[in-house]
Amino acid sequence: MTVVVDGSPLTVDEVVRVAFRQAKAVAGPNLDERMRPAADLVERVVSNDEIVYGITTGFGALSTTRVPADRASDLQYDLLRSHAAGVGDLMSPEIVRAMLLCRARTLAQGYSGVRPVVVRTLLALLEHDILPAVPAQGSVGASGDLAPFAHLALPLIGEGFVLSDDGPVPSGPVISRAGIEPLSLQAKEGLSLLNGTEGMLAQGCIAVHRARQLVDADDAACGLSAEALMGSSRPFEARIHELRPHPGQVESARRIRFLLKGSEISESHHHDFAHKVQDAYSLRCAPQVHGAVRDTIAHAERVFSIELGSVVDNPIVFADDGEVISAGNFHGQPLAFALDFLAIAVCELASISERRTDRLLDPTRSGGLTPFLATTPGVSSGYMITQYTAAAIVSENKILAHPASVESIPTSGMQEDHVSMGWGAATKLATVLTNTARVIAIELMCAAQGAEQRDMKLAPGTAEVKGIVRSVCEPLVEDRPPGVDIQAIADLIEGGAFSRIEIGA
């Protein structure tokens, strides 16, 4: 597939496809026409020696410092170099590709005052998969993701570092071998390469994609756990959820209901009210909890979709009016709130999954399953300690669910006295997503083992779920280290294996 970058809005799915090398990004045919007027206006501002923030002045607290017209280009180079102050682990290749795409799209809108060659050079890095080395720490998410974007931008001028199989390497020789000409920065181009929310936005788009896979997997895990625990399928009936029609709740109920359709286990006690009057909340209320997560994902996607069609640079160049206005569209607060909300929601996916795992392993509540699903309880511990792991991860998630967006801290000599911390919200969300995949993997592993202890036929849907688990995790006969199996199932979740199950009516 091809994603055209011409300044028009992108979708979350388009960003995801480019990030995961499922689509290439190309410049639109009208790029020059769209970008040239604003670039010409910036050139006139410099020629006329007008006082305009970031073009003929310093930045942040240095905005009152005048910069001579003959130093306007030097200002841009120094800006990129000085702002590349990031530290810590490097961002994943997927995030970096998404950042390059989102940055190119923003500049292509024609409100930044940069030349089309800047966008084309960003897209050239994507085309050749030359990915800047971007440290994970350093952004407060207000003037944009400044430090991360400085690291992203330095390879455009032949400086900084890019990723390789052997770690970060100097960018100059790499881009030279690819035939990419380093940019000669003109006025405002360095600033426009830094300002904006696309760092946290790129992470948000990837997070939405990952969260969708997690909630699909949690629905699948719930269905298989219901089989193993001889739970009732009645709480998932459509007529119940039509009375409280939150879209996510309706969808999760539909998916679980379909997975349980045709279950011999469920049918064996469908009308036997003496069997079990009620299931625990972690089973009975799964559509309500999982569905609320689905609705939160949808909310985050709406926020990110608006941002994928927005101008977030500063100052903004209005070529038609001949004005350059300094404002605050780079502030990441809308994204920070959505990222924090998403972390809270995903945290609950892990929380309810762990409760089902605990029930599967507890002989007093599992409806006849062997203690801890061991084949020889006492001699064997079975999956006892996997619940410890799930509990530890859920506790870590609860700490990470604390909102970063309320942690504003002033920067730049109090000029930037309120910041969003959206980048921090995004990076901790990534950890919550990884953690949650592992918790759901533990439930799937235990549910598969429990379902096999029932001497009855599974529904076709839950049998498919179990088959996916068994493709990487053999049944537990004798105790073995389960960590490898947990990660293998988590990798299936993150790879979308449970999202690809065809769900009918």
Give a quick precis of the structure:
With 505 residues, the chain is mainly α. Helices cover 53% and strands 5% of the residues.
Can you walk me through this structure?
The chain has 505 residues and is mainly α. The chain has helices at residues 12-19, 31-47, 72-83, 93-108, 116-127, 146-153, 171-177, 189-194, 198-228, 238-242, 247-260, 264-268, 281-284, 286-307, 333-361, 384-400, 422-451, 460-470, 483-494; strands spanning 2-5, 24-27, 87-90, 135-137, 161-162, 169-170, 316-318, 323-325. It is 53% helix and 5% strand. The strands form 4 sheets. A two-stranded parallel sheet has the order 1-2. The longest helix has 31 residues, at 198-228. The two termini are 30 Å apart.
Kindly state the percentage of residues in helix: 40-55%
CATH topology label of the largest domain? Fumarase C, Chain A, domain 2
The gyration radius over C-alpha positions equals: 26 Å
CATH architecture heading of the largest domain: Up-down Bundle
Number of helices: 19
Distance between the termini: 30 Å
Order of helices and strands: EHEHHEHHEHEEHHHHHHHHEEHHHHH
Which structural class do you get from the secondary structure elements?
Answer: mainly alpha
The CATH superfamily of the largest domain is known as: Fumarase/aspartase (Central domain)
Shape: elongated
Share of β-strand residues: under 5%
Largest sheet: 2 strands, parallel
CATH class of the largest domain: Mainly Alpha
Overall mean confidence score, pLDDT: 93
Number of strands: 8
Taking strands numbered 1, 2, ... along the chain, how are they ordered across the largest sheet?
Answer: 1-2
Spans of at least 5 consecutive residues whose pLDDT stays below 50 are: none
Could you say how many structural domains there are in total? Answer: 2
